[in-house]
Design brief:
single chain; 268 residues
Length: 268
């Protein structure tokens, strides 16, 4: 990879993601269901990574592997979010923001969606950097990256399934899910989503020093952790949960790790 090709990747990622989020905003304007913005983000990032990996990577074994991993991640997550969105009136995280924005909500939501596009550029770049790794043939670390991403997708799918099963039980209406993976983390789905983005640095980094650009792929898990833990993931969702479940959720917070799984804490 050269500086010129990196700049091309940067412009390509920003343009593609910005376009995708504009489409997501237009869908929201038509449906008033903000969950479609997350669906569009997933599909937009997936298509950006898939096309960039194959075309820019020259259809090598590694670029095809990375493209396949992107499809696995984006396909599962987009389908899950789409099904969830179709069954709900709105996403409670965004609904709260929309209420606060009032009449200015359309403009604010547009720029919020564009901000999501801009901060997702490092994620797209990590995919491209991994796919464009010029090392000949597939190496053990490529297999390791594939295993990590597959394991993370399976873990996230399991967490989503456990939460869905808990919610459809009428006896659990209004309660906080603390079963299965949710006993060890308040957001196991977010944790596994973060693990997904560890796969690309594993594939991209060349410890022999032959591909220094590979180290930039570390930005993906760093940015994803920041987004999930400090920006649009845990903070917004837990505000909603505190409003909905009050003291029960506070007790859940006291005994359960927010992000990284761990044994429940005892109260003395």
């Amino acid at each position: 990879m050269t500086i010129l090709s990196f700049l091309f990747a940067l412009i390509y990622a920003l343009g593609s993601l910005s376009t995708a989020m504009t489409v997501g905003w237009l869908i929201w304007r038509n449906t008033r269901n903000s969950g479609w913005i997350d669906t569009t983000w997933t599909l937009g990032l997936g298509l950006t990574g898939f096309a960039g990996a194959l075309v820019g990577g020259g259809f090598t074994e590694r670029s095809v592997l990375v493209a396949a991993l992107v499809c696995l991640w984006a396909g599962r997550l987009a389908l899950h979010i789409a099904v969830r969105t179709k069954a709900a009136a709105d996403d409670p995280r965004y609904a709260r923001l929309i209420r606060e924005w009032g009449p200015d909500a359309p403009r604010q939501m547009f720029w919020f969606a564009q901000t999501q596009a801009w901060v997702s550029v490092p994620l797209a770049l990590s995919i491209l950097i991994a796919a464009w790794n010029p090392a000949k043939g597939l190496h053990p670390q490529d297999l390791l990256g594939a295993i990590v991403l597959t394991f993370a997708c399976a873990g996230e799918a399991l967490a989503d399934w456990q939460l869905k099963r808990f919610r459809i039980n009428l006896a659990n209406k209004g309660r906080v899910c603390d079963q299965g993976l949710w006993k060890f983390s308040r957001h196991p789905n977010y944790f596994f989503e973060w693990v997904t983005w560890l796969a690309y640095p594993i594939i991209a980094i060349d410890l022999s020093g032959g591909y220094p650009w590979g180290w930039l792929a570390i930005l993906a898990p760093v940015v994803m952790y920041w987004l999930l833990v400090h920006v649009s993931g845990i903070p917004l969702l837990e505000q909603h949960m505190l409003t909905r479940s009050g003291d029960e959720f506070r007790r859940y917070q006291e005994r359960t790790n927010a992000f990284f799984p761990g044994p429940p804490r005892r109260r003395f």
